[in-house]
Amino acid sequence: SDETEDITESYDVFISHATEDKDSFVRPLAELLRAKGINVWYDEFSLGWGKSLRKTIDYGLANSRFGVVVLSKSFIKKDWTEYELNGLTAREMSGENQVILPIWHEVSKSDILKFSPTLVDKMALNTSINTIDEIAEQLESLLK
Length: 144
Fold this sequence. Notes:
This is Molecular chaperone Tir. By secondary structure, the protein is of the alpha/beta class. It has one domain (11-143): 3-Layer(aba) Sandwich (Rossmann fold), CATH 3.40.50.10140. Helices cover 49% and strands 16% of the residues. The chain contains eight helices and five strands; from the N terminus they run βαβααβααβααβα.
């Protein structure tokens, strides 16, 4: 199959998120990052009609320097987001340094603790404290 022939790109960041968080946070962040020249794997930019969802996501997970994980109540409930988080976690477990960059979006520490105790240990940004501009600037400085 020639399905993956045209995919040879690598990305600065993969954004793992729940669909429910697109309008309030994820799409504006993805668009701002792209405007800053950051190469973003984001489903609305990266998934083409008729492409294999799993293959395209796996490619993005494997070929992104960082995985921004937008942790929300919706994220915690979904299978696809867990699949993406598992892929990013596997990369860290295989010896890659910092891959996962968590953003807490309308969740509490206890929500995250119940979902994934190891994620509570990671320094996270929080949409109740950090603006989209600040989050984009932090990512930009990590990529330098």
